[in-house]
Specification:
The chain has 74 residues and is an all-alpha fold. It has a domain of 49 residues. 72% of the residues lie in helices and 0% in strands. The chain contains 3 helices and no strands. The longest helix is centred in the C-terminal third of the chain and has 33 residues. It holds the Pfam family CcmD_alt. Keywords: Membrane, Signal, Transmembrane, Transmembrane helix. This is CcmD family protein.
Length: 74
């Protein structure tokens, strides 16, 4: 678990460039989704998927820790 936090911090800092966009560019599909209010559905689905992945990773981590403890692996 201690190794995950620095990795997440590095990924967060590296992903800053991904959000940079030119001010004049616009995407028609995104504008249409925003106008209809459907963009929040997309955001919610992506959030649920990422939350599911995070929960699954935490469950696997806890199971591995239990197995390591049972087998005395360091």
């Amino acid at each position: 678990m201690k190794r995950i936090y620095p990795l997440l911090l590095i990924l967060l800092l590296l992903s800053e460039n991904l959000f940079a966009q030119a001010a004049g560019d616009s995407v028609e599909m995104a504008d249409k989704l925003r106008a209809d209010g459907k963009i929040w559905v997309v955001v919610a689905v992506v959030a649920v998927i990422f939350a599911g992945i995070a929960v699954n990773m935490l469950r696997i981590d806890s199971k591995l820790k239990k197995i390591e403890k049972d087998l005395n692996i360091k």
